[in-house]
Amino acid sequence: DQQVKQNSPSLSVQEGRISILNCDYTNSMFDYFLWYKKYPAEGPTFLISISSIKDKNEDGRFTVFLNKSAKHLSLHIVPSQPGDSAVYFCAASTGNQFYFGTGTSLTVIP
Amino acid sequence: SQTIHQWPATLVQPVGSPLSLECTVEGTSNPNLYWYRQAAGRGLQLLFYSVGIGQISSEVPQNLSASRPQDRQFILSSKKLLLSDSGFYLCAWSQDRGRGYTFGSGTRLTVV
To answer: What HEC string does A1-12 produce?
Structure first.
């Protein structure tokens, strides 16, 4: 049972434009949400997180939005850069365990 | 500072052979440790997690097992590998919940 879903397996964006990656979840008990970035043959690295008491968290070019009523999470990257090309995983947590989505492969075209 | 080491980076093993992947964490004590697998075209699947020495929880029935012989050591094993065991295996430990997991660099396992 996939509790965290990323319905877009891939996304292509022109350099300098906004990248929007989406994530949906089913468990209303999730109270922490994270985004990870993963390059091929490497482990995922933490990018940004948000707790359920907030609806927005910003860190430089990266902003995460949380819509609890819709059970929806999104990551905005502005402006997108070629180095942002990677697979992005969203994850949600209740307790110490995180549940991951299937990932979205982002390609930023120079 | 905390670091996580995972080896080997790549491994090619014949079907039916045993497997042992090792993961160690430095700079912390009593970490929660995890083994994940990323199969081709799929997301990250939790295989095992451990909250302490000798304490292993399995998330999915499979051909693999895990052990935690020491506080900061987590081992993934198999007695006889199957073709379907091929994938990218990741060890992780959890920090505070706001930062989620720190992952190792992964092991690419190919069973031939």
So the answer is: CCCEECCCCEEE
Cβ pair B43:A98 closer than 8 A: no
> Which amino acid belongs to residue B41?
G
DSSP single-letter state for residue A83: G
Q: Is A89 exposed, middle or buried (0-12, 13-18, 19+ CB in 10 A)?
A: buried
pLDDT tens-digit series, residues A41-79: 889 999 999 999 999 999 999 999 999 999 999 999 999
**How far is Cα B34 from Cα B23, in angstroms, rounded to an integer?**
10
Quick check: A43 and B92 CB within 8 A?
A: yes
d(CA A44, CA A22): 18
Q: And the tokens for B109? A: 């396992």
Q: Count of CB atoms within 10 A of residue A2's CB?
A: 13
Residues of B in contact with A86 (CB under 8 A): none
CB distance B43–A103 less than 8 Å?
Answer: yes
Contacts of residue B96, Cβ cutoff 8 Å, sequence gap at least 6: none
